[in-house]
Amino acid sequence: MLLLSIESSCDETSAAVIKDGTEVLSNSVSTQIAVHQAFGGVFPEVASRLHVEKINLVIKDALKIAGVSLEDLDAIAFTQGPGLVGSLHVGVMAAKTLAWSLDIPLVPVHHIAGHIYANMLSGDLEFPLMALVISGGHTELVYMESDYSFEVIGKTQDDAVGEAYDKVARLMGLAYPGGPIIDKLAKEGKKNYILPKTKTESVLDFSFSGLKSAVRQSMLREERNDQPLIVEDMAFAFQNRAVDQLMERVESALAEYSVKTLVLAGGVAANSLVRERIYKFQNDETQVLIPPIWACMDQAAMIGLAGFKAYERGVRGDCEISANSNMVL
């Protein structure tokens, strides 16, 4: 079976061809990062216009690399949400048009489900499963008792962890996106600044707004004392405190839920410290999987992998379906 998948939830336009639900024949991605760096973040209207320019190109490229034609396809999967509504709309319309013209099934996919199933590229998913979802827009703990069943058991009360990285980077005068830059600087830093732990009502929930504010207060304190900010040390302090919080919540969740697989999902899954520390939870009962670095970013291969699971379960869309920017997992 050949499935074409489309992803356009934020600032990457992507199409992929998946064979039999497991084999990635192609994965074409057009990124907009260089454009949005000028704005210090994703500019929604610019993003949607660039998706319009690139959507046909990535679809053609994905088909060419896979060595298949439109007529060979058996289904179309696409990201319905969540994300930027204008960006999502471009992918939704492309998917609906193709499915209608080819008279093949249309399969809507939740963006986070895609990130979770990107871990299929690293090993077999055994259930029950726990996913630590960490990105610019999401910070969640998701429990999956069985294949393609999702229960959000913990979530951020304010900023997502990736959003906090970008905001802290901006405070320190660093470029966008902030995550990779802070990760690199933190490796050169040392324990110098002390940032407070963040408390939440639930031991499974997250909060990063206070940590961001603590960075700002620490920077102001250094300024008042006529002390130069050691950017590497502040990056070290922020990253270690943020990752501490992530690992503490995972540890609490694993104390409540017995799982066979623990996975990382989302853009921040590319963070070197997160990838290093997540393995402390691997043991004889629980395997730990992390996606390849390229699969942490938004791309259509993950949507195709999740889309095949959805297809098997009879998930279908019709010509009336639309983008859902606040889609619930």
Provide key terms for this protein.
42% helix, five-stranded mixed sheet, 329 residues, 11 helices
Distance between the termini: 26 Å
Listing every helix as H and every strand as E from the N terminus to the C terminus, the arrangement reads EEEHHEHEHEEEHHHHEHEHH
Total number of strands: 10
What does the largest sheet look like? Answer: 5 strands, mixed
Describe the SSE topology.
Elements: E1 2-7, E2 12-19, E3 23-31, H1 33-36, H2 44-66, E4 75-81, H3 85-102, E5 106-110, H4 111-117, E6 129-134, E7 139-144, E8 151-155, H5 161-171, H6 178-188, H7 209-224, H8 231-256, E9 261-265, H9 272-277, E10 287-289, H10 293-296, H11 300-312
Parallel strand pairs: 1-4, 4-5, 6-9, 9-10
Antiparallel strand pairs: 1-2, 2-3, 6-7, 7-8
Helix pairs in contact: 2-3, 4-11, 5-6, 5-7, 6-8
Write up what this structure looks like.
By secondary structure, the protein is of the alpha/beta class. Helices cover 42% and strands 18% of the residues. The strands form 2 sheets. The chain has a 5-stranded mixed beta sheet with strand order 3-2-1-4-5, sandwiched between helices. Strands 8-7-6-9-10 form a 5-stranded mixed beta sheet, with helices on both faces. A hairpin with a 6-residue loop joins strand 7 (139-144) and strand 8. It is globular.
Short description:
With 329 residues, this protein is α/β, with parallel strands linked by helices.
